[in-house]
Each structure stands twice: as structure tokens, then as C-alpha cells.
Amino acid sequence: MSDTLKARTEELARALERAAHEHGPAAFASSLGAEDMVVTDAILRHGFGIEIFTLDTGRLHADTIALIAAVRERYGHEIRVYRPDPDAVAQYVLQHGRNGFYESVDLRKRCCEIRKVEPLKRALAGKGCWITGQRRDQSVTRSDLALQEHDAAHGLVKFNPLADWSEGEVWQYIGRHGVPYNALHEQGYRSIGCAPCTRPTLPGEDVRAGRWWWEAPEVRECGLHLAPDGRVIRIKPAESHA
């Protein structure tokens, strides 16, 4: 292991330990992407007692869902799965069609609200902090992401322990530790969400360019990391713990 990756790995472990011990109960919101598999491995490798959950929107790729079983087989751990309210989904489909999200940003955000944002609120209920696998260089909406924040929308401390990791470092960690990952990454998918809202990225595009590709880059967020009025949350970083 290179000195840089070793230092990164140690920093990640310290951040997760702090989240669990100082701000628990802690929960990790995994989208089952490459970054999230790194955080999952670190949590389970060290036994930090952090709950790992994912949001099954009902529109995920089969390869994404397969990772839940892969984690069970590799680590003997069951990822907790939250799903949307079936009545809310049915009402949306009745009014706008199954793929109505292509019609406007508002309809897309409403779909994300039903399938992701509301289940996230349930998942975070009673938690002291939540952890993400977000990185700054994934997109323009995440360029000033802090390692630790106060999430005003959910009233929680929020940790982004991979905020300053590069995409290369993520894959170095996966290779070094034999971490399972989504097979779609080998087909050009660098960021993976719901199947109808995700495409492979093209040369020169940012990591998340394949998410909601029909929209302008500055609005390509699902609402999990947005303020209630739809703005990208840009909140004051918590005090540093050097």
C-alpha cells in the first residue's frame, strides 16, 4: 500500500470512529457506488457499529441490487433497505406516468422526493449523525463539500469522510482490499443512480455527468443534499478535529 493511500485509509478510520463515538447513533447512507463501498468496507473492517442503509427506489439496476447480497456474502452483514411509500409512487405514476420525470425538473425532483428523500428521512430518524460517500470532484454541486458539516435540513451532524479523495484513490482502495463493487462501473458508469436516470459518462465529463444528463449541471441533485427550497446546501463546516 502506498504511503498516500495508507494515510487516507487511516484518516477515514479516524473520521468514522469519531462519528460513531462522538455523534452516535451514526448511520451511513450508501448508494452502493464505488465510494460507498469503500466506506462500507472501512466500517465493517473496523467494527465501528455504524448502521449501513440504502434506499431501494424501485428503479435501481439489477447490478446495484446485487451488491446487497455481495456485502452479505463478503462481510456477513445485512444492509438495511428503505423503500418508498407505495401509495405515493402509485399516485405519481397515475398522474404523470412512470417516466414523468423526463418532462420537467419539478417532476424529476418530485419523483426523487418520493423515492429517495422521504425514505431518507425515515432512515435518519433518531440518529445523531449521518455519513455519506460524497467527494468534491464528483460535480460542480459538490466542489466545496466539507469533511464535517451541520446538516440544517435534517438537524444532524453530517460526515463526508471521502470529500478530498480522488477517484483514483477510491479505486486503489477497492483493489487493495478486494472490495466488491458494481459491475456497471466497468461499463462506463462512474456514478450510478436509478436506471432510467443514469447513463455512462463520456470522455472529459465529470463523474456525475451521467446522472440526470438531460438537465443543466447545476440542478443535478436528487434532493438528499438540498435545502427545503431546492438550493444546494452550503453550510458552515463544523469545527476541525485535527
Description of the structure:
It is a single chain. This protein has one domain: HUPs (Rossmann fold, 3-Layer(aba) Sandwich), CATH 3.40.50. Helices cover about 35% and strands about 10% of the residues. It has helices at about 5-25, 35-45, 60-75, 85-95, 105-125, 165-175, and strands at about 25-30, 50-55, 80, 130, 150, 155-160. The chain has a six-stranded mixed β-sheet with strand order 3-2-1-4-6-5. α1 (about 5-25) crosses α2, α2 crosses α6 and α4 packs antiparallel against α5. The radius of gyration is 17 Å and the shape is globular. The protein starts with a helix and ends in a 65-residue tail after the last helix.
Summarize the structure.
The protein is of the alpha/beta class and 242 residues long. It has six helices and six strands; from the N terminus they run αβαβαβααβββα. The model is unreliable at 225-242 (pLDDT under 50).
Query: Numbering strands along the chain, what is their spatial order in the largest sheet?
Result: 3-2-1-4-6-5
Structural class: alpha/beta
pLDDT averaged over residues: 89
User: Low-confidence spans: pLDDT under 50, at least 5 residues?
Assistant: 225-242
Q: Assign the CATH superfamily.
A: HUPs
In CATH terms, what is the architecture? 3-Layer(aba) Sandwich
Determine the N-to-C terminus distance: 23 Å
- What's the CATH C level? Alpha Beta
- Can you tell me the overall shape? globular
Percent range for β-strand residues: 5-15%
Q: Please count the helical segments.
A: 6
| Fraction in helix | 25-40%
- In this structure, how is the largest beta sheet organized? 6 strands, mixed
Q: Oligomer, anyone?
A: single chain
**Can you tell me the CATH topology?**
Rossmann fold
